[in-house]
Amino acid sequence: MARKPLLHYFNGRGRMESIRWLLAAAGEEFDEKFMETAEDLDKLRNDGSLMYQQVPMVEIDGMKLVQTRAILNYVANKHNLYGKDMKERALIDMYTEGVADLYELVLLLPLCPPEQKDAKVDFIKEKIRTRYFPAFEKVLKSHGQDYLVGNRLSKADILLVELLYNVEELDPSAIASFPLLKVCPCVCTLSPSEQALKTRISSLPTVKKFLQPGSQRKPPMDEKNLEKAKKIFKIP
Amino acid sequence: MAGKPKLHYFNGRGRMESIRWLLAAAGVEFEEKFIETREDWDRIRKDGSLMYQQVPMVEIDGMKLVQTRAIINYIANKHNLYGKDMKERALIDMYVEGVADLNEMTIVFPVHPPGVKETKLSEIKDKAKNRYFPAFEKVLKSHGQDYLVGNKLSKADILLVELLYNVEELDPSAIASFPQLQALKTRISNLPTVKKFLQPGSQRKPPTDEKTIEEAKKMFM
């Protein structure tokens, strides 16, 4: 059980990035085996490693786990990032699932046809502004503590902060025109509580390390990488 | 903590049905408050009960829980339907997530326009037969036990059996070539709590029909 977890995915964020964040924040070192071609994916499928023929797949503690949530929950359990009792777990799950819903919208954006992209981005920003950010803001404000649940770091904090970073990247024009600005001058601006949470989590030694160049954190998807991923997964 | 859980949803299966199955299988009595009119919908969204302005919402043990997985996990934890240790939990989650992926297709199926429905039905049949059912059949075969994980009933068994019923409604021969799944379905269906839930008059909801969809669309869109 001493071997490092081995992550099987393509060399990009996709559905594996949350897992990378969580392992990194938990201080668990991991290795990565990147699929570069459709043949690499076929090989994994043919050798029976993938329960549903899909990745992410993580070899960890003698298991070949698939399904993002199963992997995240296992890592959270293992590293005490899942609260102290049933009720805390419920809150953590409730917050994590909201994060996941928004994350899903952002995740699929690169696959959106160019002519629909602006509308999609507007839709996402609307949801951020009216649904998700108010919800998380309310939680943080309600107890005024440093973490979302139980005054203690959990997967909810780490995954929310990952999302906050992703959301800030969402307005490419803003970032292009104002590269030195930390936030875009639009609805993606973080509230004080969220900014505080983001800063706090980002300052944790493990997370700080992960945020530095040279870590296993993956960059946003670019055209070249998108084409490669489409070939691997046979997306038209 | 003595009050019964209260389920807030439309009078139909949707995303609440898995929660009904789990509560029923666990032997937990529950109440339901149905959202029937536009006013009901506006009211529940305005009173701050819904963290993300969405249902399902379940009032349980002093909490107003939303998000299907959060609710399911809480019930599973509370009623020892989540394995005995971290690794069993991981397997249970892995199986439940596969079930959820296929179940999602059956949940949204009624909403598709007629032309699209045929394509979607083929997709469901194909995925069930070639991806998901073989995977679960393999698990059951590998250990030959009565339940998917740890020789003990878990949320994985209950939710898989719900899925089998759902897929069979769309494709009656869906599990014809999966003997282990057939046996699991029979076994789980014979548990006293599940047997009761499967009988007429229970809180199990019927398949969603065209008329219900049309009415819902009028109300909420």
General description of the model:
Two copies of one chain form a homodimer. Chain A has 236 residues and is of the alpha+beta class. Chain A contains ten helices and four strands. The first copy, chain A, has helices at 17-26, 38-46, 68-78, 86-107, 114-143, 155-168, 172-177, 192-203, 205-211, 223-233; strands at 6-10, 31-35, 57-60, 63-66. The first copy, chain A, has a four-stranded mixed beta sheet. The longest helix of chain A is centred in the middle third of the chain and has 30 residues, at 114-143. Chain A is globular, with a radius of gyration of 18 Å. The A-B interface holds A 51-53, 61, 63, 65-71, 73-74, 77-78, 86-87, 89-91, 93-94, 96-98, 101, 131-132, 135 and B 51-53, 61, 63, 65-71, 73-74, 77-78, 86-87, 89-91, 93-94, 96-98, 101, 131-132, 135. Chain B: This is glutathione transferase. Chain B: One of its GO terms (cellular component) is extracellular exosome. Chain B: Keywords: Transferase. Chain B: Pfam families: GST_C_3 (PF14497), GST_N (PF02798).
Concise account of the structure shown:
The first copy, chain A, has 236 residues and is of the alpha+beta class.
Helix percent of chain A reads 55-70%
- Secondary structure tally: strands of chain A: 4
The CATH architecture of the largest domain in chain A is Up-down Bundle
Strand content of chain A: 5-15%
Which protein chains are joined by the largest interface, and how many residues does each one contribute?
A-B, 30 and 30 residues
Secondary-structure content class of chain A = alpha+beta
> Strands of the largest sheet of chain A, in order across it?
2-1-3-4
- CATH hierarchy class name of the largest domain in chain A: Mainly Alpha
How many discrete structural domains of chain A?
2
Computed CA radius of gyration of chain A, to the nearest angstrom: 18 Å
The largest sheet of chain A is:
4 strands, mixed
- The CATH topology of the largest domain in chain A is Glutathione S-transferase Yfyf (Class Pi), Chain A, domain 2
Mean pLDDT of chain A: 89
Our count of helices of chain A gives 10
Oligomer: homodimer
Distance between the amino and carboxyl termini of chain A: 40 Å
Domain GST N-terminal (chain A): 3-83
EC number (chain A): 2.5.1.18
Keywords (chain A): Transferase
Domain GST C-terminal (chain A): 85-221
